[in-house]
Design goal:
The protein contains 6 helices and 7 strands. The chain is α/β, with parallel strands linked by helices. It has one domain: HAD superfamily/HAD-like (Rossmann fold). The protein has a 7-stranded mixed sheet with strand order 4-3-2-5-6-1-7, sandwiched between helices. The chain is globular and about 40 Å long. It starts with 8 loop residues before the first strand and ends with a strand. Bound molecules: magnesium ion (MG). The site of magnesium ion (MG) has 7 residues, from loops.
Length: about 170
């Protein structure tokens, strides 16, 4: 039960993944959440480590896209310095933008992974789309009342995931 909330991989942050992770796992496309995955909500622009991560992926020939539930201005402004494809107001766990992104990448579902910090948003979206997912711990506690509500429901599932430890679940 609740297998749709189980990610394929679990890491502390996206920056803790080894550079060889993508190639080792046959990943050719990465769908990123922004808020609390790449940067906290209040951070308008990508930090150097995010820029570096996107450069590492590009150097390995891996395609990237940003799939955010946030509004157009936030997502557009954030994606510009990364020169990444972006999709805003995605309503994850809705899968529409995930499928659009995979199609634009010209990849197969099994070659793509979604990364995010919320089980009921990012990980569920990955399960619904039939793609692999990476669950990461949130970068800050600065969240809306609705997200804090979802966090409360997530607790038993996060415990189950964290008991397995970092890496493949
Ligand atoms: Mg998020």
């Amino acid at each position: 039960m609740f297998n749709f909330l189980m990610p394929t991989y679990y890491y502390r942050t996206v920056f803790d993944l080894p550079d060889s992770f993508w190639r080792d796992n046959g990943i050719k496309g990465v769908l990123f959440d922004i808020d609390n995955t790449l940067e906290p909500y209040a951070t308008e622009l990508p930090s150097d480590r995010t820029v570096t991560l996107f450069e590492i992926l590009k150097a390995q020939g891996i395609k990237t896209a940003i799939i955010s539930n946030n509004h157009k201005e936030r997502v557009e402004r954030f994606a510009a310095p990364l020169k990444a494809e972006y999709y805003y107001e995605s309503l994850k766990p809705k899968t529409e933008n995930v499928f659009k992104a995979i199609e634009n990448m010209g990849l197969k579902r099994e070659e793509v992974v979604i990364i995010g910090d919320q089980l009921f948003t990012d990980i569920w979206c990955g399960s619904r789309a039939g793609i692999r997912s990476i669950f990461v711990e949130r970068l800050s506690d600065d969240e809306s009342a609705f997200i804090r509500f979802k966090r409360a429901i997530e607790i038993p599932f996060v415990k189950k995931i964290s008991r397995k430890g970092y890496g493949k679940i």
